[in-house]
Amino acid sequence: MSDIAAVYDGSALLAYAHGQIGAAELISEINAEGRQVGVPAACLATALAALTDDWDVKQLMSLMGTRTMVVLPLGGADPAEELRQVGELARLAGGDLDVGHAVAAALTHRAYYVTANPKAAEVALPPTWPVLDLRPVRLVSDRFGLAVAPTSTDSPAPPPRDDEMPHQVEPMLATLGELPTAAGWGYEFKWDGVRAIAHLDGDLRLRGRHNLTLAYPELDALRAMLAGRRVVLDGEIVALGRDGLPSFAALQRPGATIRYYVFDLLHLDGTDLTRLPYAERRDALARLDITGDPVDTPPYWTGDAGPALLDAARELGLEGVIAKRLDSPYRPGRRSAAWVKVPLSNVTEVVVAGFKPGRRSIGSLLLGMYDEHDRLVYVGQVSTGFTAATLRDLRERFEPLRDPSAPFDGPVPRQHARHAEWLRPVLVADVTYRSWTPETRLRQPSWKGLRPDRAPTEVRLRT
């Protein structure tokens, strides 16, 4: 079994996926091409998504006799450089990659892979080459038969005004609730990252709870993408895992692949857009054509797409869906019922108020939330989900936060308070959990990561 098989321009796999040829013909095509299966790279994910249950990616790779499938898209402008990059890939893989002249002339410098042997593939691929996500967000329309909301031609560009560009905008927040299915709602995927408002007026400023500009220098590319424009954007900073999906854990690791997903436009060239309906702001955002790396504008859906999109989010492994009223203005700093977040897993924000030492490091963290009377209430402890690196990082963060007194405004169960070391309640984190107990304790919580974009007073216990 070889390590690599190339996938280049053609149509055999796509034809099979669409039922135009049978398995025997596909096998014949594969054999005829020497395991180099023809399929346009732009259509690969759609094709593989359409494969029947008994003919999935792993079976395809088994048929091709390979552990790693490298996709080499078409359309490059410098064939010599592209051929050099392909040769470099083959060298790193420790094997030969048979690339004919006609194929090499069409290759672009970007390569993608899917694999049943990820460790070997990570060695084989240069780190600057992105991974092909076989379940990409943009192809959810093909997979689930959903039409992305188009940019309205009936919606004129906002008239120029002389509104002062705001120095700082607090993000609008969503309420937690059931998925709305009535008319008049738009639907977006819920991203697992850090919320950030981008101010661009010559220089770029990124703000969440703190100034994020220096933390994500790669996002300075936004200045070139919107050169000469004065804008305020709302979006989410995410880190992509090797599967191409946002990973909150990856966001906390150095060297992660960072993206800024923009989903709202609040100010454009002297015009305040926050008073406009969501649908019109989205049209104006689409006309800016912010697409590419490392900044992109994910699509949104309307009509009866909500339930299917939630199913898509579940299958893609995303956090969930956010529904937004199409006629809703943007209300900075307010939590509004016009935006409803529908998470697929039970995730909640908690305040880290103390810890209990373990044998070698931290054994568990003591968690709290603020109730309706602004009292910090104990909600449980978390002892799973940590890596060794996470525990080292937390230990360093805790040192300047030590406090001799418990920060809770109510009692902590004696068995949990025994041997506890208390902290000033300034750190916010995400944990997953199974359910709540009748005593308002988290059942089976597991650590996800710190939330530097959240203030402790925002973490509220909801009855």
UniProtKB/TrEMBL annotation:
Reading the lineage from the top rank, the first entry is: Bacteria
Might you give the EC number(s) for this enzyme? 6.5.1.1
Kindly give the PROSITE patterns that the UniProt entry links to this protein: DNA_LIGASE_A3 (PS50160)
Which keywords describe this protein according to UniProt?
A: Ligase
SUPFAM superfamilies per the UniProt record, alphabetical? DNA ligase/mRNA capping enzyme, catalytic domain, Nucleic acid-binding proteins
Database matches in InterPro entries: ATP-dep_DNA_ligase (IPR050191), DNA_ligase_ATP-dep_C (IPR012309), DNA_ligase_ATP-dep_cent (IPR012310), LigD_ligase_dom (IPR014146), NA-bd_OB-fold (IPR012340)
Listed under catalytic activity are:
ATP + (deoxyribonucleotide)n-3'-hydroxyl + 5'-phospho-(deoxyribonucleotide)m = (deoxyribonucleotide)n+m + AMP + diphosphate
Q: Where are the transmembrane segments?
A: none
Q: Name one Pfam family in it.
A: DNA_ligase_A_C
What sequence ranges are listed for the domain ATP-dependent DNA ligase family profile? 251-385
Membership in a protein family: Belongs to the ATP-dependent DNA ligase family.
| NCBIfam families named in the record | NHEJ_ligase_lig
What protein is this chain from?
DNA ligase (ATP)
Task: Read off the lineage from the record.
Answer: Bacteria, Bacillati, Actinomycetota, Actinomycetes, Micromonosporales
